[in-house]
Structures are given as structure tokens and as C-alpha cells.
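--- STAGE predict ---
source: upstream dedup step, 1 unique chain passed
mode: sequence only
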Amino acid sequence: MPLFASIRTLKGVGEKRAALYEKLGIRTLWDLLCHYPRGYEDWSAPRLISDAEVGVPCCIRGWVVNTPSEYRVRKGMTLYRFRVTDGYRSMQVTLFNNPYAAAKIRRDEEILLYGTVVSDGRRAEMTSPQIGTVAAAKIRPLYPLTEGLTNKMIETNVADALAVAAKVGLPECLPTDCVVREGLCDRLTALQSIHFPKDHAALEEAKRRLVYEELFVLQLGLLRLKGRNRRQNGAVITTDYTAEFVRGLPFSLTGAQARAIADCVKDMKGDSPMSRLIQGDVGSGKTAVAAGVAYSVIKAGKQAAMMAPTEILAEQHANSLQTLLGDSVRVGLLTGSLTPAKKKLLHEAIANGDIDFVVGTHALISDKVQFADLGLVITDEQHRFGVAQRATLAAKGKNPHLLVMSATPIPRTLALILYGDLDVSVLDELPPGRQPVETFAIGEDKRERAYGYVRKHLDEGRQGFIVCPLVEESEEIDLRSATEVFEQLKKGPFRGYTLGLLHGKMKAADKEAVMAAFAAGEIQLLVSTTVIEVGVDVPNAVIMVIENAERFGLAQLHQLRGRVGRGKHRSTCILISDNRGEDNLRRLGVMKATNDGFKIADEDLKLRGPGDFFGNRQHGLPQLKVADLLEDMPLLQRAQNSAANLLHTDPDLSSHPLLSQAVERLFAQVGEEGLN
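--- STAGE serialize ---
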């Protein structure tokens, strides 16, 4: 197809320009057509000078009153000034060091000026505007650039590529019923209007078409992947033992916990292995759900395995699970710190089926670990594990069920797209009796008062955290580092108290030792970086101070805060920040107002946007070009439904080759493994 020919087939694109396009990931004409504008300049509706909003870029249409006058301000700086009028009001225009543009200005000529108007109420001025003729009165695209490649070059090349597309034709890739039902324009019209819209209505129509197509292709890829993951169920559960499990609990399940367990059991009774995410806020009871699911698996004669990111968290889970499951279930703990002799005995017990439920760290994926009959794999805090690790553990069984647990708050609107290859259950209720953590935001001037409040709790036998954003002091960034704060507090405000230091640069064994000492009550106050974000469950820890709170995302602040308030005692989180910026005040206000991790995640998404929200994400989703995960969620849901219907009738997309190719192109950037 000509559109997949090299970019060098276009007039004016030689080796040098092709190399510049390569930097932008553009190799073919189709790549260029999919290099959408990052924004637009609206020259299509010029304003009167008096109607221009001060400080906001706009287009002014006017007549030149006088030819530009030249002013030499200093060596290397020459100004050119002239006036324009719109028939009602005049405005001074100033150009800097631009004799070429000044020479083209003619008295009484009608021109367009695009820039920012500055006005004191009496006089208006525009400095260094773009200047065009009346023929330029249109919406102009602004492209992502690289050094050496101008916007004008891309405009010219895109126009030529569109001409090729119009000549050879652009076949429809979406199913006809989708196009009709959604009222979408055709692909060629969409591409023409996204690059060179004749008006705002055409631009919106183009965006809607391209967003729907992108989301439709994305969902096709995710659903196909989910379908490929649906192998033959190797651990069919014929009996639901949940009622028996619940009778043995010292508490009642929440409605959300009961629904999640029911979802899992229903999945496990099916033809394919379960592949489900349990997403719940801190303290929502995910461990009890895991225990309930594992109970039915174990009663069916299978084994279960849970992988946790740290030894202390694995130990906590093992103790909790043994309590929840009772003596009839044999729980084993496998971690790297076990002696070789104990490991050997445990390996033999697992292989012989003498252990029903194995909880461990990465030690679980060792070649020496073999299961008698692994039926359920559980990963806790999934974002801490790579795809390969999860797959390695699952490979130790015959198509076992998969349960992924995450306390990392993700907006409900994003779960659909982020976990497109997993079924999702949300724990949106907290067990009764769980107290919300009271949160305060203070400035540096209240620090000593906050320390006094911390000492009061330590004197009562409680424990606390001081969280810092950095490990060591940096000359470039004025932030309180963990090591610096630890030394200051040990010698100053908390002299005589038992302090511990924890950060990511410590050796794994040293980190585990500090966390274990804190859990055992041997450390009263733990000075730490975000390494305690996951995996520290100490009910006696009731107070947390977070330094430089403006340096953390909302979701991260919430995760950190979740380390306190895990017991019967009233708990407090104090956020210290002198940043009085509007965004920071809004963020801290959200933290004070709610303990709901999903509401916090929604606010975090609104403040930071989808790209920043995920940061260095491990989920492996392709990068979307036009779809907005906040604004386009209704369209996403309709696209997902349509994609599911299409795959029902055409599972391998053999009747829709263009869609199949689009799916391959979209997912080529991450590889299929990234979506497992």
C-alpha cells in the first residue's frame, strides 16, 4: 500500500529530513498521517483589538496604519514598530531583530496578527506576533517537533501525504455498524480534518472518529489477549466451600468481600482458569478474600501459592492466613533467609503435597520449588512483580487460577483500560471498626509542635514514622533527606528514644532487619523513605509525619498514610509543606478531606493527567495518541462492547484484516508480553 511506503517518497524529504523524522518515530507516510497535531492556533475567527483577552494568544485582523519605524536600542538589538487598526481601535506592534518581516509590511495593507495583546486600558500592544495574509485565516496545526524540523515542513509534508491518501483511497477498518451507530465520519475525512480542520465542528468530528478507532483497536487487542489467556481450566472447582470458610471466621465479611469471593469461585468453576484482579483500598480486607478463594481450591485437593514483595509482608500474610484458614489447612512460609536445611525440608513438603498453602517471596519461583498440584497463584501488590515472575510461578502448575491483589489506588474509570486482560473485583467497603486516619497539613513553623505531638504518642507506648522524599542531602534540591533527618532527630527532638533508619539503598537483609525490629516494637520511631509504602503492617504505629509533602503524588501520600491506623488506636498523619501553590494546597486539601483511596486517585488523575499518573508504569499498555482517559471513558465502554461483539463472531479477525493489522501496530510498541 503506498501509504506504508518510506517517508522519502514525499517531495522534499531527503536523507537528512528522513533522519529527523526518524527521531519522531516517523518512517512511512502512514506514520506521518498519524503524527497528530499537539495543538492548534485559531486564525479562523480574527477578533477586534478591544475584544482580545489580555494575556491569551489570539488572532487580530487589521490594516497597517504606517510602515514600520526602525529603532536601534543597543548593539545587536533593533526594534521595528508600526500601528494597525481594526477600524475602531489601534494597536502598536513591535518586532525584534526581524528586518525581513518588517520589510514586507505595507501601509493600508490588511493583515492578520497572531500573538498576545498587552493593554493598560488605554493603549494596546502586541510584541513579536506571527504575521499572515487574510488567506491564512484558518485553524493551523502545531506539531510535536525535533530540532531541525519546523512546523511548516511538517505541514507541507502532511498535505502531500494526504493527497496520496485521497488518490489511492483509504478503506474503512471499523465495522459498518459501529460507524453508523456512533455517527462517525470516514477515515480519510478524519485525517484531513485532524490536520487541517476547516472549522471547529470538523475538528471535533475528526477527533471523535479517531478516538473511537483508537479505543476500539486497543480493546480488541486486550480482549484477544484475554481470550488467548483462557486455556483449559487445570483446577476446576466443582464445590463452593465459602460458607464453611465463613463459619470459621471470628468476624463477618463485608458485602464487597463476599461478592469478590463469589466472583472468584464462579470463575474457577468455568472452562478456563480464573484471571482476576482484586483491587481494594488499604485495610479493605484483601487477605481475607484471598483466604476465602484459597479455601475452596485447597478443599478441592489443590495447592495455593502467594507471592509477596518482602519477607516481612510474606511472614505477616502467612500468620494471617493460618489464623483465617484454621488448623485444617497447612500454611508454609518460604523466604530467602531460611537456612538451607529448612528450605530443603519445605521444598520436599511442597512437592509431596504436605503443604496446602505456600506463602513466600521471590524464593517461590526458584527451580527447586516444585508443587504436587498447584491450583491457585496469588500475587500481592502486583506492581512490584514483573510479568515473567508471575508467569514463572504459574508455570509450576497446570493452568492454575490467577488472583492479583493490589492496594495501589487506581481510579475506577481507569481499571477498565489498565487491567483490560483481567476481570476486576473492587473492594469498596472497609471492615467495621476501622478508624479513618486524621490528617493535618502544616508549615515549617509548626514543626516543633508536631514533634511534641509525636513524642506524646511514643510516651504512651505507641510507635510512629517520619517519612522523607530523599535518602541523602542534595545541594541541588533543598529537601530534608532521610539520613539528615535521622541524625538531627536522634541528637535533638527525639534524643533518648529508639530511632531506626530505613531507605532503598540499604541491603535487603538490613532493610528486613529494621522492618522486623519495628514490627517487634524494638524501634519507637522509624525514619524512612517511601520504602515503607508497601509491606509494613504494625497495628501499634499510630502517627506519621511526612516531610516535603509537596514532593509526593496524592496516591503515594495515601499509600504512605495507610501504614498507620491499622490497629484499635486513633491515628494521625501530619503533612509538612511550605509550598503555598494552588495545586499543592488543593492536593493537601484532598488528603485532609477524605480517606477514600479511589476518590484520592480520581483527584490525582485530574491534577496530574493520565501520563503522569502512571509514571514508570509496568502494565505495558500502548501509548494512546488522541484518546483522553478522563474525557473519553463513555466512548471507551461503548468501544469495548462493540469489540467484544466483533470478536464473538470473528475471533481471529480473519474477516477484518485491516483491524488485525491495526491491533498489531498498536501493540508492537510494547510487545504482547507487556500485557500479560
